[in-house]
Write a structure and sequence with these properties.
CATH class of one domain: Mainly Beta
Structural class: alpha+beta
CATH topology of one domain: Methylamine Dehydrogenase, Chain H
Strand content: 35-45%
CATH architecture of one domain: 7 Propeller
Oligomer: single chain
Number of strands: 72
Distance between the termini: 136 Å
Radius of gyration: 58 Å
Length: about 1000
Amino acid sequence: MTLVRALLPSFVALLTASPAWALNPKARISQYGHSSWRTRDGYFGGAAPTESVQTRDGFLWISTRTGLIRFDGVRFRPWSPPEGQRLPGPVESAALLAAHDGSLWIGADGYLSHWNNERLINYPVDLRIYSILEARDGTVWFCGSSLTGKQGGLCRVQGSGVRCYGKAEGIEAGYPKPIAEDEAGNLWMGADANVLRWTPASHTAYPVPGLRSKTGQTGVAALVPAPDGSIWVGIGAPGPGLGLQRLVGGNWKAFTGAGLDGTTLTVTALHIDRDGALWVGTFSKGVYRIHGETVDHFGATDGLSGDSVIQLFEDREGTLVVTTPKGLDTFRDLGVVTFSTREGLSTDEVDSVLAARDGTVWAGGAEALDAIRDGVVTSFRIGRGLPGTQVTSMLEDRAGRLWVGLDDSLTVLRDGHFQRIDIPAGMVMGLTEDVDGSVWAELGGSPRKLVRIQEDWVREVFPDPRVPTSRRVAADPAGGVWLGLASGELARLRGGVLESFSFGDDPNRLPALTHIQQIVVSSEGTVLGATGFGLIGWRNGTKRLLTVRNGLPCDRMTGMVEDGERGIWLATACGLLGVTREELDGWWKDPQVQVHPKVLDVLDGWLPGGAAFQAAGRSPDGRLWFANAGMLQMVDPEHLPRNTLPPPVHVDEVIADRRNYALSADLRLPPLTRDLQISYTAPSMAVPEKVRFRYKLDGRDPDWVDSGTRRQAFYSDLGPGDYRFHVIACNKDGVWNEEGATLRFSVAPAWYQTNVFQVLSAVSGALILWALYRLRVHQIEATAGARFDERLAERTRLARDIHDTLLQTIQGSKMVADDALDPATDAARMRGAMENLAEWLARAMQEGRAALHSLRTSTMEGNDLFEAFKRATLSEVVPVSMAATCSVVGDPREMHPIVRDEVYRIGYEAILNACLHSRASRLSVALEYAHDLTLRVTDDGFGIDAAYLDQGKPGHFGLQGMRERAVHIEGKLTLTSSQSSGTAITLVVPGGIAFQKARPTPLSRVREFLTGTSGGRG
């Protein structure tokens, strides 16, 4: 056995309670979370960084040869003053100071500038500024070398100007380098060969032993006051006996210890962190950390961006920031700590881990078995005490002995030596001890076997198929053992009886995912199994399955271990998942319960590996250990680092329609803005990838929008108006900044979106609606009037028809009856009169039916007016004493039925009037078919009384009906009458109305003609 005593402070109470905002000094630098942004990868615009500071708003400011860069942990953005303001000169090698009020001081060749996030104030000075300091009383001091020799090397900002101190105040030309303030308020400055303690009232110089003032020599490059009153001094000039010095009570002490001779270093930067550890940046050897008697180192071979360190400082979240000419590095605490050969292990392949009851942690893997206890690693290796090449499993029995599976053998470690146990051939895949003191070994090979060993002898062997193929074995507190089978089932072997329990059959499940990787049996008999398809559980016959359906981020598990609170931690491909005891109890009550596990992923240090032989264990101090095949990892659930600082939130940029807008209190965007992007950020150097955001635009978003880690909000449908954008963020540990950041802006309206235009549009719309309403009312009134007119016209027509037919027939019947009664004694005459009366009454019935029929169709069966009038002149209505003739000129033409009826009625009325009232001897009816239709009815009677010619005889409607019919068909009716020449009635109807095949008639006239709405109404 070989003892390798490596200094491993991280193995001694590694994760004890410590402030969430400080790096754990008990961890190695290589065990911190490390991020690096290298110049060669395109960061910083390709220009090497020279200094960096963090302002109170969380942004990191980095000076480069080409300008200032602002960094939020995710994005590097070049910075320049607002329009109208500028820096007096370049910022190459500029000194930076982040003041307590949140402002930034920039010092370079010939100027000092103050940026307070609103305006830039420039102070011209005759110095090449190397260092800027804000004292406890708020005074800003800066020092450097004079450019003209007229100004001292130490100055302070005083009001709107500066005051500088020179030789008269004890400031020699050789004091241009670092500046610091101690607890007593003294300023300390480094020079070429001295360190100066200075106040305006007194000063003391302390020459550095072995360091001589020399032009161009770096001399004192860094200094930092320690809490105990001493001063750490870094010498940048190489030379024997220099390097890292400590000034204690005016005496110099070179640092040596823990294998480091500090005098051999060329120191460029110093920083004391919040836990009192001293960080030393060197010119060519990277970074050293000194904490007590422990020294740790991290250089370019370990992943540092460069071995030449320019600056060291600790940010607001406890992250250490290292600036080198080749990039920027940060170091932070991790929830999961990794151990490998870099931390002193004998092998990187750790396949099995066991936490013993005495606090020793055993890590076994390829060609080595390491015992870690009290900061000492005891290693067994091949050829150095280890009788095998591969540690596959381990067990601590009740007697405290260590059982070790090596290759295909089983051994017990006694007094530093391994004693072999005679077992059947097969790799030992798992070991456990039951309540009776028997050791059970699960052996691989073909076939697989289960072996029970008592008093170091094999008592029973259970080969396949008696015992199904198992992968893991654990003791049952009630006796016997539990087996985790390759099929994904649990089995209990007790008293030689095997009982198995299935957890669902999924035909799509891959065989490789069914294996049970590890089982844990609690003291009350609850069994949990880590499988490739979730967490299985058995308790008093109740079976449970916990998967992504219950809230787990993934199903595939490689191991698990119970913590001190009886919660469970699951090693999975997506992270280390912690499920509390309360959630497990809820799961046993309700298999559908949703859990919210604590997730430690790769950003927290978890590096998932393949299934190990023995994946996890818990040491007496509560720390959990996991063998991930490629490394050993540890987590302390009771002392997980937690960032309690909410991240500062800022609105970073506004882009509208691909145009950038400067942020201001009265940001106004142009009309018709369609594509709006609002960028926001929450600066954090501690896992910025886990910063999450929520935002809300008042008046647009009804509730908070969870954007996750996305840092932009997009809108494409904003109308004119005032808006308020609010964004909040949380850090990696879920601590929210509820106040967040707010941006107020407005979108200007287009001319047609203004209030005046909208009011006018509303008024115009109302007027248009009112006009449409009035038009509709007018249309309804006109339609109703037309319907009334049509009904009146129809009644008038019926009156005319009744007068021209039925009444005249009745009148004729009355005349026949009167004639029969005078004298009434002539029977033959009476009979003839009655026969005529019957004919007249029959005619009245016929005419009544015709009148009814005319309500729907024409009263004339034929279309020939000439034939109709000819029949009328041959009917009984014409007296025997009257000679009637009927003539036609031109070819008869098709006529509209309504026109034809009206012309016939007018002509028939004229014939009837001549027969009844004219006492004429001749009657002439003439039709003329020419351009127009002309009807003439003439007689040689004694004419019509002039008094009745225009208005008609009272109580009679013949002439009035003729005129109304003529007007209805747009005809012209002329009546001439005299006692000497008789009466002549002439009707002229335009051909466009009378004839169907005449020239086209205007639509309005046709409509009036068809509906009876012409000027002849009433």
